[in-house]
Amino acid sequence: MRKFRFIAGLSLALAASPYLSAQRQQKLPTHFAGWSGQPSPMWVETEAAPDYLDLWKETGRAPGEFCEYSSGGAKIQVNLQKYHDPSSAYEMYTALIRPEMHPSTLNRTSAVDGDRLFALVGSSILEVRPAPVISTADLVTLVNAVGAHADQTPLPPIRTYLPRGFSDGTQRYARGPAAFRNAIAALKRDEFANLASEAGFDMNAEAMLAQYREGKEEAVLLLLDYPTPQLAEQHLRHLEQAISPAAKQAGTSIERKASLLSIVLKPSSAVYGDSLRRAVNYETEVTWNEPHQTVTDPPLINRLIVIILATILFMVAAVVLGAAFGGVRVLTKMLFPGKVFDRPEQMDVLQLGLSSKRIDSRDFY
Question: Nearest CA to 255 among 263, 247, 246?
Answer without folding.
Answer: 263
